Amino acid sequence: GDSVTQMEGPVTLSEEAFLTINCTYTATGYPSLFWYVQYPGEGLQLLLKATKADDKGSNKGFEATYRKETTSFHLEKGSVQVSDSAVYFCALSDPNSGGSNYKLTFGKGTLLTVNP
Amino acid sequence: DADVTQTPRNRITKTGKRIMLECSQTKGHDRMYWYRQDPGLGLRLIYYSFDVKDINKGEISDGYSVSRQAQAKFSLSLESAIPNQTALYFCATAGQGGRDTQYFGPGTRLTVL
User: Fold this and answer.
1) In chain A, which residue's Cα lies nearest the Cα of B99?
2) A109 at interface of B, judged by CB pairs closer than 8 A
3) What residues of chain B lie within 8 A of the CB of A7, using their CB?
4) B93: closest CA among B21, B26, B44, B38?
5) Using an 8 Å Cβ cutoff, are B91 and B4 in contact?
6) What is the DSSP annotation of B27-91?
7) How far apart are CA A18 and CA A11, in angstroms?
8) pLDDT, tens only, A86-112
9) Closest chain A residue by Cα to residue B48
10) Which residues, other chains included, contact A98 with Cβ-Cβ below 8 Å and sequence gap of 6+?
């Protein structure tokens, strides 16, 4: 079945540091890939997505590239801010998995704390 | 106004009680989902519905039931709550198409004593 593995946290960085959160996946078909962010006390918000190989999703300075050859979708940001402190979830949606399921499969989440 | 709303936002109840969590959406989406979030486990799918007459079990449906009262409303019930159902519960919606983004509500924090 489908699965998502992302690096375990917590990750603690200083402001303006470079961020990478690794994410790899297993899927039976050709999934779409997502990064969701959950700020403290809130629900999940879509951060970025990519729907096919070599696509790059980007938003708010974050980027991730869909790498089919390495089954990866690593999240990066060149200079993090205190306001980026949140839990980040990698997820996939595989419409070819078991028929028309259209479900999201999530990683376990990575807590990022950015200190001033 | 939020596109996906959940009520209540917080609930404390006792073992054995029946609890209903409600979700409403104004996005006009056909697909709706219920997830639970536990620390260190990410989000796990409880039930999902593609329209009013189509309801499907997710990976952890035992102990839960759902009702899709209308396109815009999808409720989750715990018939007899137990402490290990203490968690954060999220409703989500999505439009047609397998690659559509899911939009999440703010969550309901449920504590079962």
Assistant:
1) A32
2) yes
3) none
4) B26
5) yes
6) S--SEEEEEEEETTTEEEEEEEEEETTEEEE-TT-TT-EEEEEETTEEEEEESS--GGG-EEEEE
7) 12
8) 999 999 987 665 544 567 889 999 999
9) A103
10) none
Report the pLDDT value the prediction gives residue B98, as an integer from 0 to 100: 55
Say if residue A35's pLDDT is above 60: yes
pLDDT of residue A58: 97
Q: In Å, how far is A96's CA from the nearest CA of chain B? A: 9
Q: How far apart are the first and last CA of chain A?
A: 41
User: Does position B82 have pLDDT exceeding 50, yes or no?
Assistant: yes
The SS3 of residue A83 is: helix
Task: Mutate one of B43, B51, B54, B55 to test the A interface: name it (highest A CB count within 10 A).
Answer: B43
Tokens read off for B76: 């989750």
Q: Do the Cβ atoms of A94 and A104 come closer than 8 Å?
A: no
